[in-house]
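@channel anyone free to eyeball this complex?
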Amino acid sequence: MSEIPLDRKTPAGALQTVDRALLVLLAFERTRPDWGVTEVAAEFGWDTSVAQRLLSTLAGRGFLVSDPATRRYRIGPAVLRLGRLWERSGSLELLAAPVLEELGRVTGDTVLFCLPDSFHMRCVAAVEGESGPLRYYPLVGELYPAHAGATAKSFYAFLPDEQRHRLFRGRPMARFTDRTVTDPDELERELVQVRAQGYAWTVGEYDAGIATVAVPVFLGREPYGSLSLGGAKERFTDGPEGRLDALRKAARLLEKRLTHPPQRTRKPRAPQS
Amino acid sequence: MSEIPLDRKTPAGALQTVDRALLVLLAFERTRPDWGVTEVAAEFGWDTSVAQRLLSTLAGRGFLVSDPATRRYRIGPAVLRLGRLWERSGSLELLAAPVLEELGRVTGDTVLFCLPDSFHMRCVAAVEGESGPLRYYPLVGELYPAHAGATAKSFYAFLPDEQRHRLFRGRPMARFTDRTVTDPDELERELVQVRAQGYAWTVGEYDAGIATVAVPVFLGREPYGSLSLGGAKERFTDGPEGRLDALRKAARLLEKRLTHPPQRTRKPRAPQS
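replying in thread with the prediction:
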């Protein structure tokens, strides 16, 4: 996610030392997984003693760990604990809701935001279309199989080849409708095509009467989930093209909110709990 | 993980404001996913204005998000980014290595620490036994199927029933040896038994000549991975009992290092990168 630049100036009203510690945490990246004290000092233009105290304070609560052999720091296990909490915290729905609502308002379709969960996609946020509910059970929490329908295909197509092949190899592919693809070679050809065109479009692969168009949602360079528009196939007689711009714009906005969440512009004068 | 008490006193040499911000982050738990300003102030005995500035500084970098409707805070998406980095960061091996080495020294067996990965267990750290390598390929990175062998069973047995049933339902169960269990009902009976006795013990389910005993590794109340001892079955003629104490002790130590990583006791006088 190094392509998303961070403004390193501490925002007005924020605590500078805390903000610096958070910047240090955010400096750890996949391409730069460990840092030494003098490197941190040089990167941010701080005294070595400042960098040392920030790093050891972060290590003191397990947000970093130092390698006893090299004295370099890496991300620590406290992050693991918080990371496991994140998806259950409600923040995802909170951040996604305004994007999904706007997309639903513009298109009139049902909007789904889904994340992968053991060879399925799990719906984590949804908005019903103007033509009424797609199904008679709650959309949120529902699981969709990895091999059927645009919602899943638009995510799995963007996994690294090796990981995708391992996931799909030797799997049973349940048939839901006469359009469900159950041959792994044919599925792989379709996923390669989805990847090339940047979106997935399916009609009746999972639900016979439903058409769906979906795009991946990325965190940095990694696929994180999928955003999709679905509805009765009669609503999609012109295919997916007319919806792609709105869908892509919403996916970019969702990515932005997931990496740089919006802030209240002013602190409330009388803080309330 | 609320059963692991945090010492709230800022350690000597640490930056107090930063340490307080980290304590606030660690206060977010599954059973307490959102906090208001006055609640944080009351919990830690701080002025409301201190709590407000800490919370808004954390929100400013996306570590928290505030719900515009309730003004309460939840874990934010910056945690997501760091969480995805954690398992690739090398910290896991760094923290696990001393525990695995000691367990290997005491038992002479091959020691594996494995985490779940799409209906498999992935070996993330390993120590070879005194009787030489179990296999002629690297242990770390290897995937073990979810239904065969103690390493996998000692993890999957401890998943919540609903989640386990969903994972195992309708799966193809490959047969590796004549001891591999491929009937889902029989497998479920075995997993219930593993859960009741607290460990898994298998002989030749995955590798014909290998015996393995394994226990789950928990983070708080949630199963996170498994720690196992394996070797040629001739080494295990007395069954698993003689190894259980050492294995359980090592698993508890691993859990402790994952939640409270060890610290260097003194800052180096001349910080080095």
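from a first look: The domain at 16-84 of chain B is CATH 1.10.10.10 (Arc Repressor Mutant, subunit A).
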